[in-house]
Amino acid sequence: MELLANLGLGLSVALSLDNLLYALAGAMLGTAIGVLPGLGPVATISILLPVTFGLPPVSALIMLSGIYYGAQYGGSTTAILVNLPGESSSVVTALDGYAMARQGQAGKALAAAAIASFMAGTIATLVIAMFGPPLAAVALKFGPAEYFSLMVLGLVASIVLAHGSLLHAFGMILFGLLLGIVGTDVNSGAERYTFGQPWLADGVGFVTLAMGLYGVGEIVRNMEHDDRREPMLKKVTGLMPTWADIKRILAPTLRGTALGSLLGILPGGGATLASFSAYALEKKVANSQVPFGQGAIEGVAGPEAANNAGAQTSFIPMLTLGIPSNPVMALMIGALIIHGIQPGPSVMTEQPALFWGIIASMWVGNLFLVVLNLPLVGLWVRMVTVPYHLLYPAILVFCAIGVYSVNNSVWDIYLMAGFGLLGYVFAKLDCEPAPMLLGFILGPMMEEFLRRALLLSKGDPGVFVTRPISAALLTLAVVLLLLVLSPALARRRAEAFQEEQ
Amino acid sequence: MKAWFSTWLAALLVAFGASAPQGAAAADQPYPSRVVRLVLPFPSGGPSDLAARAFARSLERQVGQPVVVDNRPGANGIIAARLAASSTPDGYTLLWATSSTLAQLRLQSGAAAPSFVPVTAIGKFAFGMFVSPAVKADTVADFVTYARAHPGSLNVATSTLSEYKAAVQFMKATGIDMVRVPYKGSSQALPDLMQDRVQVNFLPVAAGLQYARAGKLKMLATLQGKRIDAMPDTPTMAETGYAGLTPPGWQLLLAPPNTPRALADRIAGLAARALQEPELRGLYASQLLDVDSAGPDALAALMKDEARGWEQFFREHDVKDVN
């Protein structure tokens, strides 16, 4: 009953007229800016952070959370419509979402994403309200050894992401791992593959890489057909999902929500894995009518649910421990400190209205997103009917602005152009960028956690198998690897590959 | 509404390089007659970013012009420092630097490091010694005894050059040996410290204080010269009998090389007034940032001192490059 009283307190805060307006404003701003390619939640929040300084703390946080979900949702919109994932979590949404869009089902994909996100958001809000503090304790149990094993599992799962040749997938993962090495080594401070350039000292940015490979690369590829100045699609079918579609996405949404809620609480990379692992899971268990990678609605709903649930549970370490699980949470901590509140163990007891108000507003924000976005689906879909000669320059300009806004660095724009050419080469060679991006994200974290775990164990590699959570994760990775490499599966992959031809 | 709108318009102008008319006409006008850019070597959200943003707001009120924070994170501050060093020395581009930024510059460029013109010190974040709650020690003396009994088995977390320096100086002063475990930031180090995967971390008190109050960490000493008001029962490191630890944590305001002295003095005066604002003082007090608005001369002496300290540290410990 205490839970009900707490949620009641939260709702009374979140449903006040002011806070409703801030949640709405946040969701709208977030969606609007998130839809622009390259401008993800981090860039959006850091730009808008000072705007919230004048607001009361709860309202500021409610608005920032709205921007966070909104930008994330907007990011999925560009991933689906124009194959432009603005952040790591929408890379997998692009796989089947863009395939659906090419078949004229962009509206269906967008609506599926919105509905899955809302369902995940509702469940995750309840999860946080009921299990927030105990889950935070679980998150603390994850040390370097556990994180390393989790990353190994994620890397193995990334092979499942590819639907072409296994060799290409391996090659792309390795290339991603190598790209991730660029930058300054945390342990020794030595610079690796930076060629003495200060703009490479912190490595290659995710946004730079993704915008180059996907955005610029895709445009260069389409330029080949210089006589085709027509829009991608003339006819848009299936604006809204049918009842049968909704039934099909129900199970993937619930599975994605469970995975996302669990991985989201892990600070430092957990949430990144959520959408990838949800996709890998769906590919294994979902009984889809359409092969994955060719427009399976399950491949949109599962990862989108995981991504949204993870985004929400990533508030747990921030609100209960004061530990930011991603750069957006770090910005929120900054916003609270400006208002004289130090996020941490004491927030829940000393600021119950703030704590429960934010939790209740998560649900309110998600509701706004659905209400805002479902009617907008028709509008977004018209974006793909814009002729190339108008759409492409606009995408290029927004990619450049987005990439620039991350570090205020012009070099990143040149780098993006370089990756654009690389993306074209990859497309010609039939190499998918998604496994490479996962290798790129996981590689540096894996290395960091491996070396830290070994430093802490004084060089004994036994920690990875003697610690129960780590051992369980590694076992899972081995099983998955065996499944992938087993001849029967390899045959099935070959068949799938031939179908595509 | 209007205030932030104009600030953001100004920010856009700065971001896209469309600065207001410069040259002869501007030279006649009193400083500042247009937007002042404050280059910051950190991403938004961290403690130094907060301190700088709050300062920028106060300075804005003093100068009557927008002061725009320009976050240029990366390469441990080198990117921001190089940008500021190559800007026109007209007072419209300033650099917010920390002890670690200057140390990193020295480490990378040695004597060739750009000689920024000191404007004013802002203050200093209080540092403290935090240990895991599982460590059987409630005082620094207990900790040293404990560490001597377990040689080489304790870990010390470090996330910045300043934390590294404090850890090395502590080991030298006490003669104990610990394994240094590098982290990218205290948000990564704190969970490991709370779970006793690492045993000690010298970090800004503001980052660890709430955990010490909640019993999730133990704060054994402060590195400041005097006890801090927030933890009046925690002794200073000097009181515990170990000398030779220089408290890090300086936040400084610098101007590009060759900025005229008169201009530096003018900005220092405006900054000193901004630092008097009660609202700013209140935020800095809550962040345990001790305000010390040493002007150009005092700051020059301070920077020389700091430089000597770092050089000695790099030499003695053969530091080539860390973090």
Give a topology summary.
The complex is a heterodimer of chains A (501) and B (323).
Chain A lengths: L1 H13 L2 H19 L5 H8 L8 H26 L8 H12 L3 H36 L2 H18 L4 H16 L1 E2 L6 E2 L13 H18 L19 H22 L5 H16 L12 H16 L1 H7 L5 H12 L8 H4 L1 H31 L5 H20 L3 H19 L3 H24 L6 H4 L1 H18 L1 H14 L1
Chain B lengths: L1 H14 L8 H5 L7 E5 L6 H17 L3 E5 L6 H8 L7 E6 H11 L7 E9 L1 E5 L8 H10 L5 E4 L2 H14 L4 E4 L3 H9 L5 E5 H9 L4 E5 L27 E6 L5 H14 L3 H9 L2 E3 L4 H21 L7
Parallel strand pairs in B: 1-2, 1-3, 6-7, 6-8
Antiparallel strand pairs in B: 3-10, 4-10, 4-11, 5-8, 5-9
Helix pairs in contact in B: 3-10, 3-11, 5-12
Would you write up a description of this structure?
The complex is a heterodimer of chains A (501) and B (323). Chain A has 501 residues and is mainly α. Chain A has 22 helices and two strands. Chain A has a domain at 1-142 and 252-386. Chain A has helices at 2-14, 17-35, 41-48, 57-82, 91-102, 106-141, 144-161, 166-181, 206-223, 243-264, 270-285, 298-313, 315-321, 327-338, 347-350, 352-382, 388-407, 411-429, 433-456, 463-466, 468-485, 487-500; strands at residues 183-184, 191-192. In chain A, helix 6 (106-141) runs parallel beside helix 12 (298-313) and helix 7 packs parallel to helix 21 (468-485). Chain B folds into two domains: 35-123 and 248-316, Bordetella uptake gene, domain 1 (D-Maltodextrin-Binding Protein, domain 2); 127-222, D-Maltodextrin-Binding Protein, domain 2 (3-Layer(aba) Sandwich), CATH 3.40.190. Chain B has helices at residues 2-15, 24-28, 47-63, 78-85, 99-109, 140-149, 161-174, 186-194, 205-213, 261-274, 278-286, 296-316, and strands at residues 36-40, 67-71, 93-98, 117-125, 127-131, 155-158, 179-182, 200-204, 218-222, 250-255, 289-291. Chain B has a six-stranded mixed beta sheet with strand order 2-1-3-10-4-11, with helices on both faces. Chain B has a five-stranded mixed beta sheet with strand order 7-6-8-5-9, sandwiched between helices. Chains A and B meet through helix 6, helix 14 and helix 19 of A and helix 1, helix 3, helix 4, strand 7 and helix 8 of B.
